[in-house]
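Second attempt. The first submission of EF-hand domain-containing protein had a stray character pasted in from the spreadsheet, which I only caught after the job came back as garbage. Lesson logged: always re-copy from the clean sequence file. Corrected sequence (82 aa) follows.
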Amino acid sequence: MTLHRALTTELKFIQADTDQSRLIEMCELRDLLGEDVSDLTIERTFNEIDTDKSGTLDFLEVLTVVDCLVQRVRMDLSVAVW
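This time the job returned cleanly.
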């Protein structure tokens, strides 16, 4: 992961953490993703990211998911080129 992506992710994390708890709760994720995303999708996504099952998302959990998503996109693009 590039430093730029890590810092961008950190900035978005801080913005989403409206109660400044250094954790993202489900309601904060819902606010971040907006009304276009269904409650079921938000709940499933939250539960996938919450690897320690604490009911909150810490920065490391979010950063890990962002890194995985970026790698998937890169892999999909490399497959599409072939």
